[in-house]
UniProtKB/TrEMBL annotation, chain A:
PANTHER family in the record: ABC TRANSPORTER PERMEASE PROTEIN, MALTOSE TRANSPORT SYSTEM PERMEASE-RELATED
GO biological process: transmembrane transport
Protein name: Carbohydrate ABC transporter permease
Keyword terms: Cell membrane, Membrane, Transmembrane, Transmembrane helix, Transport
Length: 315, 322
């Protein structure tokens, strides 16, 4: 067990303290960009581009207002003729001589991200569980070659894959559709799912199913009622890894979607205000987009190592 | 409820099985193991063949032609190997390969040094090390595109936080620190972001390597009065080496095909100073629409990655047996 490591050769208190200081300094420095995203999302546009950069500022939700709306510039006379503002967003927009024209594309793009990420994760984990069980329990001819083939598809450069996929989807009418993206992400994620889940299923003793089969279960019943419940943790961890990949993916999304099926990552960089990038709105979009991942990272922290090494390193 | 129903059904099926001849019985009892194995594995293989292998074969075929995807009605001419020979002799490709090599070399060097040092420090097991490890891991889980995009803001010449901090410590005026548009600085701008993002990855794998070293080896070294320095070079480093290799190979492959972060930060510019291979590929395929030519380039990249992946899996299996 890792807890018992270095029990005799325990590092001295001084060296521990020095190590702690260095690690904490690194951790804090590496958090600055994320802190800055969060802080910027609560700044007003003038505050966000102030020099020197403002660390203390009056928080405002203008960035979030701008993220979810589109606005048009109007004359002061027109704005004065309007009925009183009903919401905070209305009010701040009017102060900048603008009125809210309608909802922005952020919400639909965010929903696309959700649909595509969850859809592809479900398919990848479903297929991956079956295949992993197959490889784990049966003598499959050329199993090592097949497993290598499955993994190697994940190493393909996305742009290299995107060229023929682009042509194929154009022929099949899958360009810029959620279905096309789900299929593509499933194919990328299934390799990770198979490798990770094979590791998890390998850890479940065969004896359990064998006992169940002696009791009269068929192979499929044993799989469903004995193996699947035992593999729940592994399946959940795998699902989160697939979800994070699909959620974060940019290369395919930016080349193969342009409108209806566009996900959030290619959309967020295109959020612009008057006279350039609307940084508070971009920061707000980034914050909204990152929060689910932060939650998942904390949930996953014990399984991270497994996930990033395709199940090879288990601690 | 359903459990009892299904168990009644099972029992009924079993009774029926007992009453039927042998071959039929095995069918009622369920599919044979071989059938189950193929039934379980086939869908994955079929999907990968359809989404990965079929397009790949198509790309190979296109790589011998002058096809352009934006002019689908033009006749396709077979031009043999000339796409390949053009790529290998073209100076632009070599410039792209140099930019890629510069990026891969420095990111891996920095990430391995910082990542291993952090892992070594965390392995001192000070109080709260688990918490700080989780904090350090956060950047690598985030979307390189979305976070990379935000770094453009940090790099802004006047108002960016990064430029401000650098100018604060060096005294260089902020207007002179053009991280993304200066020819010398831009390659470093992308190296910094990648290092910030992926050092935790190397750290996590190195940490696993350090923790895999059994205590008794250090105890024996202690008995032999080996100095700390000696212990590090003859125990710690060699025993963690397969793990470091694993991390280096994986980062090497990933950064060799780097696209998202660079595309958003510099888009390959200024000029083509940060034009790594994937950016060149995107420009050729989706901006100049030289589909045949870019397919050939894609195949070359793929062969290179495939070779690296082969080595990676070998190291992976070696680490696995530890």
């Amino acid at each position: 067990m890792s807890a018992a490591a270095h029990s005799v050769v325990e590092p001295s208190t001084t060296s521990k303290r020095a190590a702690a200081t260095l690690v904490i300094v690194y951790a804090l420095i590496s958090m600055i960009p994320l802190f800055w995203i969060f802080a910027t999302s609560f700044k007003t546009p003038p505050d966000s581009i102030a020099y020197p950069p403002k660390i203390v500022f009056t928080p405002s939700i203008e960035g979030y207002c701008n993220l979810f709306t589109t606005r048009t510039r109007q004359t002061p006379e027109y704005i004065n003729s309007l009925p009183p503002a009903t919401s905070f967003c209305d009010e701040t927009t009017r102060k900048r001589n603008m009125v809210i024209a309608g909802p922005s594309n952020f919400l639909p793009r965010f929903v696309n991200s959700l649909i595509i990420a969850f859809g592809s994760t479900f398919c990848a984990v479903f297929l991956g569980t079956l295949a992993a069980y197959g490889f784990s329990r049966f003598r499959v001819p050329l199993a090592d070659d097949l497993l290598f083939f499955i993994l190697s598809t994940r190493f393909m450069p996305p742009i290299a894959v995107a060229i023929p996929i682009y042509l194929m989807y154009r022929e099949l009418g899958l360009s810029d559709t959620a279905l096309g993206m789900i299929l593509l992400y499933t194919a990328v994620n299934v390799s990770l799912a198979v490798w990770l889940l094979k590791g998890f299923i390998d850890e479940i003793p065969r004896e359990y199913e064998e006992a169940a089969m002696i009791d009269g279960y068929t192979r499929l019943q044993a799989f469903r009622k004995v193996v699947l419940p035992q593999a729940t943790t592994g399946i959940a961890a795998t699902a989160i890894f697939c979800l994070i990949f699909a959620w974060n993916e940019y290369a395919f999304a930016s080349l193969l979607t342009s409108g209806t099926a566009q996900t959030a990552p290619p959309f967020i960089p295109t959020i612009i205000g008057e006279g350039g990038q609307d940084w508070p709105a971009v920061a707000a979009g980034t914050t909204v987009f990152l929060v689910p991942i932060l939650v998942f990272t904390i949930l996953l922290r014990k399984q991270l190592l497994r996930g990033i090494t395709f199940g090879a390193v288990r601690k | 409820m359903t459990d009892t129903t299904s168990s009644i059904l099972d029992r009924a099926a079993e009774a029926a099985a007992r009453a039927t001849p042998e071959t039929l019985a095995s069918r009622v009892r369920g599919l044979s193991d071989r059938m189950v194995a193929w039934l379980f594995i086939a869908p994955t293989i079929v999907l990968l063949l359809a989404i990965n292998i079929f397009p790949l074969i198509w790309a190979i075929q296109l790589s011998f032609t002058n096809y352009r995807a934006n002019r689908p009605n033009e006749p396709i001419k077979n031009i043999g190997l000339s796409n390949y020979s053009r790529i290998l002799t073209d100076t632009d490709t070599w410039i792209a390969m140099q930019a890629t090599a510069h990026f891969v070399f420095w990111t891996i060097l920095l990430q391995t040094l910082i990542g291993f040092s952090l892992a070594y420090l965390i392995d001192r097991k000070f109080r709260g090390h688990a918490f700080w490890t989780t904090i350090i891991l956060v950047p690598m889980m985030l979307s390189p595109a979305v976070v990379g995009n935000f770094w453009r803001f940090l790099y802004e010449p006047q108002i960016g936080l990064f430029t401000y901090v650098v100018s604060f410590f060096t005294g260089i005026p902020t207007t002179d620190i053009l991280m993304l548009s200066n020819v010398t600085l831009a390659p470093w701008a992308i190296i910094i972001v990648d290092t910030w993002m992926w050092t935790p990855y190397v750290m996590l794998i190195c940490l696993a390597g350090l923790r895999s070293i059994p205590d008794y080896i250090y105890e024996a070294a202690e008995v032999d009065r080996a100095s700390n320095w000696r212990q590090f070079w003859s125990i710690t480093l060699p025993m963690a080496l397969p793990f470091i290799m694993l991390a280096v190979l994986f980062r090497g492959i990933e950064n060799f095909k780097m696209f998202d972060m660079v595309n958003l930060l510099t888009g390959g510019g200024p000029g083509s100073t940060t034009e790594v291979a994937s950016i060149t590929l995107k420009r050729e395929a989706f901006e100049k629409w030289r589909t045949g030519f870019s397919s050939a380039f894609a195949i070359i990249l793929f062969v290179a990655v495939f070779g690296l992946a082969n080595i990676y899996v070998k190291v992976l299996n070696r680490v696995k047996s530890r």
